[in-house]
Amino acid sequence: MKRFCIKSRRGLLLCCVTASLVPLSVYAQQAGKKVDIEAPTQQQAGQVEKAGKGMRDTQIHKTLESRLAQNEHLRALSIDTDVENGKVYLRGEVRSGAQRALAAEVAGNVDGVTGVQNDLVVNSADPPTGERLSRQASDAALTAQVKSRLMLSNNTAGLAIDVHTENNIVTLRGTVSSATERELAGLIAGNTEGVTEVRNELQVRPD
Question: What residues contact residue 53 under an 8 Å CB cut-off, 6+ apart?
């Protein structure tokens, strides 16, 4: 039987080093190859940017509606709000110039807002008590008002949301795309003059 042996440790070490250099050299050759990575198209980049802006607008809109609903000087007013590319649009009627200025200040202090277009109209004429109570008691009028505000918003699917009002209590039903949209719709309804309670029964559409 033939025997193969390595006579010295130096020879053994040389064999091990040579064997280890083979895969390293192969790896180095592969690493030197140019790998082409396809860059996203302009259309794809635009879609990603648009989606990001839409999410930011929705968050700004939700925060703004929440602050208006919590402000003791503004929560009883019908202020329509919308957000597009970070810019806030205010519409509706207020009873004084101070309320108009305050609404713009509240909107401008929301993180992410790039500008405020204040189209609020000052109407200092206070309607007669009987007329005001009659309007608040009109469930049909409240339903139409809430529905209109939801449809004016770019961040809520107004057509997909069913609005029902009974004794000034608004109930929202239907399906929306996210929990944020569901919360925003509830805030918009609750921030409508004459609404005493909102029952948010909206369901979030599964992914």
Answer: 85, 86
Written as six digits, the tokens of 113 are: 């807002």
| Cα 151 to Cα 203: distance, rounded to the nearest angstrom | 18
CB neighbourhood size of 194 (10 A): 20
E-only strand ranges, 60-168: 79-84, 87-94, 115-122, 161-166
Higher-pLDDT residue of 149, 29: 149
Q: Which of 56, 71, 100 is nearest to 191 (CA)?
A: 71
pLDDT in tens, 100-114: 999 999 999 999 999
The answer to whether 140 and 166 are in contact (CB under 8 A) is no
Model's pTM, two decimal places?
Answer: 0.53
**Domains (ranges, CATH) in the chain?**
43-125 (3.30.1340.30), 127-207 (3.30.1340.30)
Reference 67, options 50, 83, 85; nearest CA is 83
